[in-house]
From TrEMBL:
It comes from the Bacteria. It comes from Drouetiella hepatica Uher 2000/2452. The chain crosses the membrane at residues 29-50, 62-84. It is found in: Cell membrane. This is GlsB/YeaQ/YmgE family stress response membrane protein. It is a multi-pass membrane protein.
Length: 89
């Protein structure tokens, strides 16, 4: 997948996850893209683990099922980021 598709998937997944996730997350467009890209990797890796039983670093593709997995992964990333920043504060 080329870099533009990764950025587009990250932006979409991060924006949807931030809209769905309760509370205020803050951050701008760059943090939304980064959380979405991390979410694509987290969601893709968890999906691969659940379907094949092996843990691999895999990202989702730019499709509707890939976007759903990336949004779920971005929500996990938002949750983990919230845990890390609450402990630091």
């Amino acid at each position: 997948m080329n870099i533009i598709a990764w950025l587009l998937l990250g932006l979409l997944a991060g924006a949807i996850a931030k809209a769905i996730y309760p509370g205020s997350q803050g951050g701008g467009i760059l943090s939304t893209i980064i959380l979405g890209i991390i979410g694509a990797f987290v969601g893709g890796s968890l999906y691969t683990l659940l379907t094949t039983g092996t843990l691999q670093l895999a990202a989702t593709g730019l499709s509707i099922p890939g976007l759903l997995v990336a949004v779920l992964g971005a929500m996990v990333a938002i949750f983990l980021w919230g845990l890390m920043t609450r402990r630091a504060a």
